[in-house]
Amino acid sequence: MDESAVSVHEMDPATGPAEFNAAIAEYHRKGKAITCNKVLSVPMTGVETLYGGICLVQFEHRQSVQNICYDTGVGEFEMQPALKGIDSTAALIQFVFDNCPGG
Fold this sequence. Notes:
By secondary structure, the protein is of the alpha+beta class. The chain has helices at residues 16-26, 89-99, and strands at residues 9-11, 32-43, 49-58, 63-71, 77-81.
């Protein structure tokens, strides 16, 4: 997929926890997003949208900054520890297209 050919929308980071907690529950993953410092959406074809965020996630006994993405069309979801110092929009877009590229 050519990332330069799509439209990326930065969203209010306050929307992130609710958006990603719904996906975390839907995909039966552990953790709960507490805050997000970056959230974006990438509208694709039809009703499909890709979402990505950099969020602080509470696990049972620890908190960790995670990159999160999911795709509303084909059902892809990924959550990985974020690399320190890599919190740019470009890096998040790359994470989304690498892990939740859509269909």
